[in-house]
Specification:
Blueprint (H helix, E strand, L loop, with lengths): L1 H21 L7 E7 L18 E10 L4 E2 L7 H14 L4 E8 L4 H4 L2 H17 L4 E6 L5 H19 L10 E6 L17 H7 L2 E4 L26 H11 L6 E6 L1 E7 L11 E4 L11 E3 H8 L5 E5 L4 E6 L2 E5 L2 H13 L4 E5 L9 H13 L3 H5 L31 H12 L2
Parallel strand pairs: 1-2, 1-15, 2-4, 4-5, 5-6, 6-7, 7-8, 8-15
Antiparallel strand pairs: 2-3, 9-10, 9-11, 9-14, 12-13, 13-14
This protein binds 2-acetamido-2-deoxy-beta-D-glucopyranose (6 copies).
Keywords: Glycoprotein, Glycosidase, Hydrolase, Signal
Organism: Carex littledalei
Protein name: Chitinase-3-like protein 1
Length: 430
Amino acid sequence: MAKIMFISLLMLSIVSLSVSQEQCTNSNQVRAGYWLSNSNHYSPLDSINTSLYTHLYYCSIAVDYNQATISIPSSEEVPFFMKFSSTLKSTNPSLKTLVSVFATTQFSSIASDTNRREKLILSTIQLARANGFDGVDLSWQFPSSSADMANLAELLTKWRSKIDEENQTSLPPLLLTATLYFSNHIFDMPDQNLDYPIDVLSYNLDWANILSFSFRKSTNVTIYDAPLYDMSSHYSASYGIISWLDAGLPPCKIVMGLPLFGRSWILRNKAKNELGSPIVAAGLKQKMSNHTGLMAYSEIANISKDSSVSVSYDNRSVAAYLFSSSTWVSFDSFEVVHEKVMFALQYRLLGYFVWPINFDDSDYSMSDQALQIWLKYRNSLIYEEGNIFGFGFGQTEAPSNSPPHSLNPSQASRLTHHNLLLFLLLFLFF
Ligand SMILES: *[C@@H]1O[C@H](CO)[C@@H](O)[C@H](O)[C@H]1NC(C)=O
Ligand SMILES: *[C@@H]1O[C@H](CO)[C@@H](O)[C@H](O)[C@H]1NC(C)=O
Ligand SMILES: *[C@@H]1O[C@H](CO)[C@@H](O)[C@H](O)[C@H]1NC(C)=O
Ligand SMILES: *[C@@H]1O[C@H](CO)[C@@H](O)[C@H](O)[C@H]1NC(C)=O
Ligand SMILES: *[C@@H]1O[C@H](CO)[C@@H](O)[C@H](O)[C@H]1NC(C)=O
Ligand SMILES: *[C@@H]1O[C@H](CO)[C@@H](O)[C@H](O)[C@H]1NC(C)=O
């Protein structure tokens, strides 16, 4: 009996292995961007250079937790929402549009209930179809218990089957994606068993957008917000992506995030302006990012034109910062984007997304930089031969001794569950 079970398990794993390889014929396909509806005036729909993207996300639609449906967009947003797809596709007919559903921790109450799950799924599908979207995205920030993870699996399985049985056969099936934490394991939560359900994600999602930035939310010294490498902790984009791969998510299901924003702080002493320097507060609120401690790439580019401003690129961490008087900003420069796109190619990921496109400069320089690197190297022999172009002290695999999940990897980090969520909430709804 045990033998038969063993053999069937073996066969099952061979089957699933070939499935995941088959899933990987489709790499190099996604160059996406999120468009923030509440920053619509900084990137009017008809000003977007749509040829820079393959997929654009409307970010975001909220959830009505009482009704277990999608919230109707506010009257101010309705016009953008309704014309999002048609306007963008008018200049790039092959562009695909998706609507991103933003879910808070309250989402547990929907994910855990069969009827409420179904209601939410149907309302999302209807809203997407009625407004010409090609897909839907779930951005649940973040599941916070093992039960949440199990319910996420149920939800996505159901979502996929609803899409499959959809009644509009004249159109291709809706795409289904999810916006997920930077690593497959969620750190710094009271529940330490927070691993995403990899097989379910892999089977039901077209792909996962990985939030490869803002790893650490609270600090009293200057830090990099989204370094590609960090040899002393798990807070890096490479660690996160490799953790997903190690856990079994196929590379062709992974789309890596590139932040078009920086994090800013006020230095305690403006003469002490290196990485790890003491800070006293979050940076002043800027017009575009409209939130303390954040700066849009466009605002960073504007500041860095000033000759008194010093910009540094750290080729070891693959990260950049600048300081101007007592303001210190960690951000992704052109070099950083170059290296991150090369990293995505090296690991044969499906693609990248920029977050959000509204924060790019008026020429969409960063979106263009990512695209040009991608196009230039995606078919190159150098890329086929693998790991010979990487700069930085490559974290070529996740550290075999991963820090314990509960470990706070830096004394400087004061991350708590609450300010993580608060930050993300504020960030999305500023
Ligand atoms: C849009 O981006 C493409 C790709 O870089 C470029 O060739 C084109 O000139 C841009 N269009 C506009 C209007 O800037
Ligand atoms: C398709 O139609 C059937 C019968 O009208 C309905 O029960 C089902 O919920 C519909 N599916 C979707 C995804 O709307
Ligand atoms: C900036 O954020 C505040 C809330 O903090 C909001 O009331 C205001 O409308 C926002 N401004 C812009 C231009 O989005
Ligand atoms: C650009 O920076 C200058 C100061 O260096 C500032 O006066 C100006 O308002 C900024 N422009 C924008 C669009 O942020
Ligand atoms: C990284 O920067 C250091 C210091 O500027 C330099 O010596 C080194 O050659 C650089 N490495 C690469 C791979 O660019
Ligand atoms: C940061 O602040 C906390 C208290 O708010 C303190 O315990 C910790 O030592 C500080 N860390 C550094 C590096 O200054």
